[in-house]
Fold this protein.
Amino acid sequence: MHSDDQIFVRLMEAKLADIRTTDMLPEELVALVERVLPIQIEARGAARVTLPDRSSCASDEAMFAGSPMVLREHFPHDQAQALSLFPILLEVLAGTGGAASSAADTLRSAIASGELDPAQALRALSAGDDELFAAWRQRLPESPRALNFLATSALWPGLNAAALALAKRLPENLPHERGHCPLCGSLPYITFLREKEGLRFGACSFCGHEHRIRRICCPYCDESDTAKLKLFRVAEYPGVSVGVCETCNMYVKTLDFRQLDKGLLPALDDMASVALDVLAQSQGYKRPTLSAWGF
Ligand SMILES: [Zn+2]
Ligand SMILES: [Zn+2]
């Protein structure tokens, strides 16, 4: 494993230990992430992605006007790797016990009988087409996001490898008036502040790219009128605030890296602060994006 990846795994272990002490999430879910994340990090290092020609990407001019570099359905990824990760992740899911295990059994049978085609699920996820996933959420009420989890987690290593490479092509001083990802156009699942001056970034819910956004704005509808935006914090979660938007009725959590002593790992910090999601949702606000693993 690459030394950066080892640092990552140590940070992951520290964060998971914190998540376990809060008792907010079922142990099966924490254990699932603990097994899946190292698989994904290793796969990202091994992913083979073919980047599109610059001529088939948005021009600098179009990107300055707000177009993403590549549309989500054309975003490069490693399809062969994602297909080979699918059964591996399915076995990990099967090993977690409880409802997730029986959901994994049902999905495995559906794949064996030809009823479910993993390649089709991966294509639907890339295209942002929820129909197939919605059908499986209905069929697996005890573990509704099992297929979302498999497809999202299998696709992520290749997508993120591509995002890391494509980010090097982004023009400098790209404006950041809009909340969406400049590489793929998807919405962030969480935002965070870093560096002394507290620059704000969004973590893309599709490709994982971390992109600058305005400090005061709703990343979902781009509202920036402070009369429409409210911020709240909870003493038990220092370093995390929840921004709610009266215009689109969405909320987003913002992590303040400067107050988080262990370093930032947005996907896990999102999990660790799930109590704040419960609170925001109890006030009627919604979250338009899922966790980094699709649940
Ligand atoms: Zn993206
Ligand atoms: Zn909004």
